[in-house]
Amino acid sequence: MTARRRPLSTLVAAVTLTLLTASGVLPASPAAARTPAGTPWIGWTGTWAAAPSHAVPGLPGASIRNVVHTSAGGYAVRIRITNRFGTAPLRLGAVTVALQTPGAPKSPGAVPGSVRRVTHRGAAAITVPAGRDLVTDPVPLWVRAAAHLLVTLHTPADSGPATYHRSAVQTNFIAPGGDHTADESGAAYTATTGSWYYLAGVDILSPLTRGSVVAFGDSITDGSGSTNSADRRWPDRLAARLAALPPHRRLGVLNAGIAGNRLLLDGTGPSALSRFDADALTHTGVRAVIVMEGVNDIKGRPEQTDPAAFAAAYRQLAARAHARGIRVIGGTIAPFGGHSGWTEAREAVRQSVNRFIRTGGLFDGVADFDAAVRDPQRPERILPAYDPGDHLHFNDAGYQAMADAVDLAGLRVPAKTA
């Protein structure tokens, strides 16, 4: 009988773990690295992501310290650097990853001894071609779930427009002059930014997490209205729920929200239809995608008034995910009554689209965000306790209610066939 071949990704992970353990930089695999049946497991999975939204002028000569919040822990990390909207090769003089000082979400300081130099094919100077993403070599670093990493990149010269994620809802840091990527002290980081630069994802070599879930959406998924630098977006709260499960049921959570994003048309960033593969399907270890897109099409200009167009777009997304064996959860569109973009006609479109999401039979499951956050007395509006005041986004309590609306058991069931 011919032995079953192990997937290449599994072999690479196993070899990486063996080498890192043999070198003494990693401890032996903990007991939690075994499934209930006692079979050891180790593999790469996504622990954090941000969807590139567009490009802005670069920061030549600066060191940019991005703060990211992990959803899964493990023994080693690798970084997904992006130059997706660049027009020239992105040249980085140095890249590092470190643990942020615990309990200091607005500090650029690193835990002493945690700074690691990041390489690509063994080289510390990294070049990313225009229009591309690049995944770095593995870096040995023990990282816990719900930790904060500092991913620091030095741009020694002008590489043209910088690909970034505009609305991070997180304070990040800039050292205006020189290579400060290896600094443990944050003293050189005298400027701040509310955006993530050149960073699309972080993978973790994990004995505790068996894949990832992508939260795919607009500003509501991006976390607009939540407390800055507090990790209270609904995908963050979903990650906390998943992290509390037994190891063999845990999943990382990757946030692919872009503020202002639309399902059908380009606007703030490419449309959902245009970016779905790059921002959802090609991340590491994706098992499921939760799609919540459409409110900006309904209330935006030009407004989209045909529910059939929404249904056709959702079918395209589901077919592309199912072709890869990825489960798709449909997220209903939340109320926005009281917002300047609301009208009775647009409310009728929202209700029609939500009926399709709930009963159309397309999705592998439904996250009924609308039901979770609406005011029972005025269902076209958000419950006042969840409304930060703009009648569109949510406060921390509202995002918790959204996370609680996701059926965790349904995230690991095999997807429908396309």
Automatic annotation (TrEMBL):
SUPFAM superfamilies referenced in this protein's UniProt entry, alphabetically: SGNH hydrolase
CDD domains, alphabetized: XynE_like
Signal sequence segment: 1-28
UniProt KW keywords: Hydrolase, Signal
Annotated InterPro entries: GDSL_Rv0518-like (IPR053140), SGNH_hydro (IPR013830), SGNH_hydro_sf (IPR036514)
Pfam families cross-referenced by the UniProt entry: Lipase_GDSL_2
SGNH hydrolase-type esterase domain segment(s): 215-401
Gene Ontology molecular function: hydrolase activity
Name assigned to this protein: SGNH/GDSL hydrolase family protein
Source organism: Streptomyces jumonjinensis
